[in-house]
Amino acid sequence: MTASPRHEAADTTTAVAAQTTTAVGAQTTAAPVGAQATAAARHRAARLEALLGDPQDPANPHGIAALCAADARGEPPEPTEALLTEAGLAAEFVPARSGGLLTRADLLVTALRPLFRRDLALGLGFGITSLSATAPVWAAGSTRQRAATADLLLRGGRAAAVPHEPAHANALARGELTAAPGRGGWILDGRKELVMNASRAGAWVACVRTTPERGPHSHSVLLLDPGELPSARVRRLPRVPTPGMRGTLFSGLAFTHCPIPAHALVGRPGEGTALTLRTLQIDHCLIPAMAVAAAETVLRSAVRAATGRGQPVARRWHKPLAGVFADLLTCDSMATVALRALSLLPDRTHLLAAAVKYVVPDLLRENLEELTTVLGLPGHEHGSGHHGPLDKLTRDLPFASLGHTGTAACHAVLVPQLRPLAERSWFKAPEPPPELFRTGADLPALNHRLLGIAGGEDFLAASLIGSAARLAATAGTDGRIALLAGLAEAFTDELRTLRSRCAALPTTPGPAAVILSDRYALLQAAAAVLGIWEGQDGTDAFLAEPAWAVLALSRLARRLGLTTPGPPDECVAQVLDELVRRHRTGRSCDLDGSGPSH
User: How far, CA to CA in Å, does 424 sit from each of 161, 502, 574?
Assistant: First the structure.
């Protein structure tokens, strides 16, 4: 087993790490959440796995066949939704301080992976929608609002987000609500064409325009109780069929001179845009992490198709299967680091969150195309259990990530920051605390009120530079470490080039900056892989070895067009062997590597 340079140097860098923690993470003062909470999340995941039953059993009403059938009919999988409600799954979306189970975003993913392995759309529609909608309430709501929202969710109710209309809006985001001051509160007008779960929600959290002028203070957030509103002033629009997430209920809302009580205001007037941007980071990290779990099911289908009745994997499928597995670990590394950063570095995660939201769905789309070559084997037709998850995720993933609108939103966050990062952060900022990358490390609880969008330091770029330096110092001891060191050096050189190009950007960046932001986002992924690999303590022998990181980084380097050696055949073989081993032993294909996963 190979010890990572970061662990080898741990004893000699304690003082530096302490200074880094003080400098970078001093603002997080909440009590740490560590091993006990991690164990509890894994226990809840095992309980949920058992509750949902064997996903491959065609007779299981909560299995993949039943879920795909409901999707084909355009219906919610009502038996499974009822089961999840009865099991009290909604407690996962309520902060622990408000009576729920939510302590850290990464542990939420741990607890819910069994659900998302079966159906990304079900997981989003059943729970993540409520989590997203209520985030502004946890961040800025009054004691009364937080208590009422917690009570609604803990009783099995739902909340729906009614967002403002952003630039580049697609049909999902089109339309706007406006609120003018009225007697004892506000007067609400306008319509939104598509709101997830609008017809079933017991609360609508709406970001509405409260001033006609454009600017950062043009919108406010209102927490609306449908039961408090006059029925003659609110109209629920008909359900709209969608090409993806076909079983999820999308419909619209229309308000006509509707009186809204003053106590509906969340936070301060004019705070809506900032509040939305701050809390949207959670979505940007969570949804890609959940999509990785869904993609794992497709990868397992491909392994099952390639191995048949216990036969070895044909050589022509070695690179596709090992490569997709390595990409899933890249995606999981990036999402996991971002989710943990929400707790550890809540005021400076917004750039990483946008990069995750952009990179992970993009890589997963490529992976689905690559797996099609395996699942296209004779005898595996598109109606089969092999192809059902592939077909469904291919439809659902673009819709879940908002397609072009989601990409444009990520670029809108990243592009304006490229020049400031080049001038003030890259090759200057300190590394993040090592706990960011260490499985099982104590981290502060997620505190929505600490989430920020003003931090200018790029902690993952700093980590990339540090990883490259540590690997260069130990590269002579192991040929595989030398490969890893060479890849880390190539990514660091790319960051140096990016710094020069971004420093020369005009004040108002043009299309060229979008291309640079794409490259920057892939560098963030590379930094996450290196950080996760360095953070291994040897508990997982596979993750502690460099093979997976070499293959994952080689694929990122290829996407960037960097000149680096290809991964050795032994790395591909080692990653493939681990994939087949996990498939046969029921262990999951993510960083956690837990089981059972069917």
Answer: 36, 12, 41
Beta bridge partners of 186: 181, 260
Question: Which is higher by pLDDT, 45 or 4?
Answer: 45
Identify the burial level of 221 via C-beta atoms within 10 angstroms of its C-beta, where 0-12 means exposed, 13-18 middle and 19 or more buried: buried
Question: How high is the pLDDT of residue 171?
Answer: 53
Nearest to 280 by CA among 166, 364, 150, 176: 166
3-state SS, residue 4: coil
Find how far residue 285's CA is from the centre of its chain.
3
Give yes or no for a contact between 294 and 393, defined as CB atoms under 8 angstroms apart.
yes
Which residues neighbour 460 within 8 Å (Cβ) at sequence distance 6 or greater?
Answer: 337, 352, 432, 524, 527, 528, 531
Please give the Cα distance from 33 to 445 (Å, whole number).
6
Contact at 8 Å (CB) between 544 and 538? yes
Range 40-62 average pLDDT: 96
1-15, 92-106, 266-280, 315-329: which range is least confident on average? 1-15
Tokens 């039953």 sit on residue: 53
DSSP assignments along 522-566, one per residue? HHHHHHHHHHHHHT--SSSHHHHSSHHHHHHHHHHHHHHT---PP
> Alpha-carbon distance 105 to 214, whole Å?
33
Q: Beta-carbon neighbour count of residue 59 at 10 Å? A: 9
More confident residue, 382 or 486: 486
Query: Per-residue pLDDT for 6 more than 70?
Result: no
Amino acid at 219: H
Nearest to residue 265, comparing CAs of 229, 220, 228, 233? 220
Q: How far is CA 173 from the centre of its chain?
A: 20
Total Cβ atoms within 10 A of residue 183 = 8
Does 10 or 473 have the greater pLDDT score? 473
Residue that is written with structure tokens 């069994």 in the block: 114
Mean pLDDT of the chain: 90
d(CA 222, CA 203): 10
Task: Name, in order, each residue with C-beta under 8 angstroms of 585's C-beta and a sequence gap of 6 or more.
Answer: 595
> pLDDT of 242-251, one tens digit each?
999 999 999 9
Decide if pLDDT at 26 tops 50.
no
CB 162 within 8 A of CB 253: yes
Distances, alpha carbon 239 to alpha carbons 81, 125, 207, 231, 275, in Å: 19, 14, 21, 18, 29
pLDDT value for 409: 86
Amino acid letter, 302: A
Residue 256 burial (C-beta neighbours within 10 Å; 0-12, 13-18, 19+)? middle
Spatial contact of 84 and 49, defined as CB atoms under 8 Å apart: no
* Contact assessment for residue 425 and residue 418, using Cβ atoms and an 8 Å cutoff: no
Bridge-based pairing state of the strands 443-444 and 32-33: antiparallel
Distance CA 136, CA 207 (A): 10
Give 327-370 pLDDT, tens digit per residue: 999 999 999 999 999 999 999 999 999 999 999 999 999 999 99
3-class DSSP assignment, residue 267: coil
**Cα→Cα distances 211→179, 214, 528, Å:** 8, 8, 41
For residue 2, the model assigns a pLDDT of 45
